Amino acid sequence: LVRSSGPRLSGKRIIVDPGRGGDDHGVILNGPAGPISEADILWDLASRLEGRMTAIGIETFLSRPANAAPADAERATTANTVGADMMISLRCATHASPAASGVASFHFGNSHGSVSTIGRNLADFIQREVVARTGLRDCRVHGRTWDLLRLTRMPTVQVDVGYITNPNDRATLVSPASRDALAEGILAAVKR
After folding, report:
1. Residue 9 in 3-state DSSP?
2. In whole numbers, what is the pLDDT of the chain averaged over residues?
3. What angle do CA 49, 50, 54 make, to 5 degrees?
4. CATH number of 13-191
5. Could you tell me the sign of the dihedral formed by the alpha carbons of 111, 117, 119, 125, in that order?
6. What angle do CA 162, 132, 29 make, to 5 degrees?
7. Distance of alpha carbon 182 from alpha carbon 49, whole angstroms
8. Does pTM top 0.70 for this prediction?
9. Which residue, 127, 157, 149, is CA-closest to 140?
10. Which residue from 39, 118, 179, 187 puts its CA 20 to 30 A from 128's CA?
11. What is the pLDDT of residues 139-161, one digit of tens each?
12. Separation of alpha carbons 147 and 145, rounded Å
């Protein structure tokens, strides 16, 4: 008899949601291989995460095709339609001050005590793993009532993977090796 340990992920359905898309390219940066848009960074990160999840038996979906930028409510509808067990949304943060930096994770929650407990726990795991693997500043975990978090019927976490307006975070985001580290961190959290 072979002993198994850890959560059983085979057969789980996870939807990965790369932010931006379509005509919404976001900020365009100079990367090691030339110009790269915020949308390209998020699509690449989502693809890396999707590949890793598929390799361990998770049925993985992307919330949108490469050439579309659906509203958050549409992304939530897609997740609900495929019957996902979990949704992970990937976004970049921006701020008027280039000093703003770090990674933050968001789950459904409000000031009246309503919260997705599983979403909060997943956000905590993702936050810890990503910070440990990337060295990005820990901007912590927060409850929000944004459409994407509120309208999904499964635990959903939005990960703001760094500030595209901060030079250090930007350098991390344009690096393929750093995007690998981000994907590995998120996968490790999901496996927990």
Report:
1. coil
2. 92
3. 120
4. 3.40.630.40
5. positive
6. 25
7. 9
8. yes
9. 127
10. 39
11. 999 999 999 999 999 999 999 99
12. 6
